[in-house]
Amino acid sequence: MTGRRGGRRPGSPDTRGAVLASARTLFAERGFTGTSVRAVAEGAGVDAALVHHYFGTKRELFLAAVAIPLDPAVVLGALHSVPRAQLGETVVRAVIGFWDGDHREAGIALLRAQLTDPESTILRTFIGDIIAGALGANADLDPDTAATRTALVASQIGGILLLRYIVGLDPIASMSVDELAAHIGPTVQRYLTDPMP
Amino acid sequence: MTGRRGGRRPGSPDTRGAVLASARTLFAERGFTGTSVRAVAEGAGVDAALVHHYFGTKRELFLAAVAIPLDPAVVLGALHSVPRAQLGETVVRAVIGFWDGDHREAGIALLRAQLTDPESTILRTFIGDIIAGALGANADLDPDTAATRTALVASQIGGILLLRYIVGLDPIASMSVDELAAHIGPTVQRYLTDPMP
């Protein structure tokens, strides 16, 4: 429309779009750890330094690429400052509070899109690398059991997100955050801190 | 192809198909309790007695309409015969054993299809009426809290189905049924039998 066809300018909207498209493709194909910022940059035809300049770390690039509007490390950052016995309830309040807020529609769209695509590994990458990293760092999990603990927490929280926002099953859909924290918090606490069976 | 166009014969494949199509439409629009066998029959242009003859009860018709290959009342029937303290583990073993078996592909296809359709109420109906009925009858739940207990159980089991069969997140995806029962059984037990917070 404006005559700016052809050349791709660093930082212009089409450069950002090309980087994000390249990132989505590579993260889906190779997962989080198998994807380098350099490879994303090459896929977009730009320099890796430019990718870092515009999107920050690889984790921040991933979150931008899959349109997750807030970094789980920020959502779960409160875990540092609560007593260990309140970790479960704090996780539930942080996640449900986030989803109940402004990000609800984006979250539902992302979840639905990822669930419908049999080839996508985005959710696996998101839970297995991003959430696991945030939980492990903020909740001080035993490294030997951290992957299992994170997956169990994800199963309980994921099931709640599914029933509350996608299926719309009452009373899960209509419970307050306080009620959900009372019901689900002890489960998450057990998965995070109790001895493994 | 065979010249049998036009007239719909009782019990012929096109009659069965018409009944199932009418059932899917009405269950999705009106939910389980809001749909009568008579209305399904009217929608298909056949007699209600014929629907009962070919599909049995309304619950059996629902299961056939949404292509759920086995009745939850059968899967959960074992709950009658176990000590009350083993209800949680028994539920986990019954559901995961069922999904790990021959019905895995059909289950995944159904779950994916229902999650992608924002208008569908099939999963809500399935959990809220069919599963709730089977759990309530077989696990002898307190009627005042049965809906909440069932929804909480569904959130934990649903999250496991999601991570194990759709997302494919390890170690949930690769755990044995025994391991899953040890991890998740106590959660389901708590939701079924512990005092509500």
Automatic annotation (TrEMBL), chains A, B:
This is Putative TetR family transcriptional regulator. Residues 36-55 bind DNA. The lineage of its organism: Bacteria, Bacillati, Actinomycetota, Actinomycetes, Mycobacteriales. The keyword DNA-binding applies. The keyword tRNA processing does not apply. InterPro entries: Homeodomain-like_sf, HTH-type_TetR-like_transc_reg, HTH_TetR, Tet_transcr_reg_TetR-rel_C_sf, TetR_C_16. Residues 13-73 form the HTH tetR-type domain. It comes from Gordonia amarae NBRC 15530. GO terms for molecular function: DNA-binding transcription factor activity; transcription cis-regulatory region binding. Keywords: DNA-binding.
